[in-house]
Design a protein that fits this description.
By secondary structure, the protein is of the alpha/beta class. It is 37% helix and 14% strand. α2 runs parallel beside α3. The chain binds NADP nicotinamide-adenine-dinucleotide phosphate. The site of NADP nicotinamide-adenine-dinucleotide phosphate has 27 residues, from α9. Belongs to the aldo/keto reductase family.
């Protein structure tokens, strides 16, 4: 399978469209731009959000067992006039549900809550040393049994992916990691590109905090776009898939209005140079050692 390179200088990306999908190494496809649903826990907001997002063109919705909104998403999807194969659902196995049996049991519950026969993408939410290979063995089985279409990881660094490859029968096809202008993760993205693993950015807007960065604001003025649209377009031109979240339908719509302009190579470089190795969330290595995302768990 062809390995896609990213960040190539001089390659026009003007032909990006909102329907664009990544070809995954397992033969399936995944929309490049999806909607994150972390912290959306109000039923009325969820219904409005999914309906508005679907109408705008979003097809990928990202949740996790940890977000405690799978059942709500299930109900909101039922309310949409769409066929199952028209949308792409990602969920993630929580740390407490890792291990062979627990992964499979909890996946059954997620499917029940989502009212689905399968999810399009199942991710290991965080690497944990205790259940590292057993959890992945359960993922391979879930895929073989049709409970999931594609399997992937989240918050895995290069070393976790290389370790997983020592025993895995199948490699992850997606690695969802924290990526935003202050944490560009170029070396990890180069590694995953070389291994045909698609990088999908979480907190792609830096949780909103990077939208007031002076460079981002000045580029927004220059291109007559919003700061969020500049950052979203930057991800896409770097060939990073992404799942920005908003609880506001107008913002969800605006976040997809990024296909009528192109950031120049110089401005792309300037955005890349904002990197400060600054994480919003946990250091994956600590979670791996601690066995939980938060110290008190
Ligand atoms: N795998 C993991 O470990 C992991 C961890 C965290 C998140 N995720 C996933 O990634 C998704 C995205 O990450 P995130 O939610 O942490 O952060 P994010 O998408 O970077 O930022 C979301 C924040 O930006 C604001 N925002 C969105 N669009 C905006 C706009 N156009 N103008 C101004 N502000 C805007 C939102 O506010 P409003 O909602 O008020 O509009 C919200 O506060 C999550 O929802 C979740 O699905 C995965």
């Amino acid at each position: 399978m062809e390995v896609k390179l990213f960040g190539q200088k001089g390659v026009s990306s003007m032909n990006l469209t909102k329907q664009d999908r990544n070809q995954l190494a397992d033969g399936h496809q995944m929309p490049k731009l999806g909607l994150g649903l972390y912290k959306v826990t109000d039923e009325a907001v969820m219904q409005k959000l999914l309906a508005g997002a679907y109408e705008t063109g979003y097809r990928l919705f990202d949740t996790a067992q940890m977000y405690q909104n799978e059942a709500m998403i299930g109900r909101a999807l039922q309310a949409l006039p769409v066929q199952r194969d028209e949308f792409f659902i990602t969920t993630k196995i929580a740390e407490a549900n890792q291990g062979y049996d627990a992964t499979l049991r909890s996946l059954e519950q997620s499917l029940k809550d989502l009212q689905l026969d399968y999810v399009d993408l199942l991710l290991v939410h965080w690497p944990l040393h205790q259940h590292f290979f057993e959890t992945w063995r359960a993922f391979e089985r879930a895929k073989a049994e049709g409970m999931v279409r594609s399997i992937g990881t989240s918050n895995y660094g290069q070393i976790h992916l290389e370790y997983l490859a020592t025993k895995a029968n199948e490699l992850p096809v997606v690695n969802q990691v924290e990526v935003h202008p202050y944490l560009t993760q170029k070396p990890l993205q180069t590694f995953t590109n070389e291994h045909n693993i698609v990088t999908q950015a979480w907190a792609p807007l830096g949780r909103g905090g990077e939208l007031s960065d002076p460079l981002v604001v000045s580029l927004a003025e220059k291109y007559q776009k919003s700061p969020a649209q500049i950052v979203i377009r930057w991800h896409l031109q770097n060939q990073t898939a992404l799942i920005p979240k908003s609880s506001h339908v107008e913002r969800v719509q605006a976040n997809m209005d990024v296909f009528d302009f192109e950031i120049t190579n110089d401005d792309m470089q300037a955005l890349d140079d904002l990197n400060q190795f600054k994480r919003i969330s946990q250091e994956p290595e600590l979670v791996y050692e601690r066995g939980a995302q938060y110290p008190h768990h």
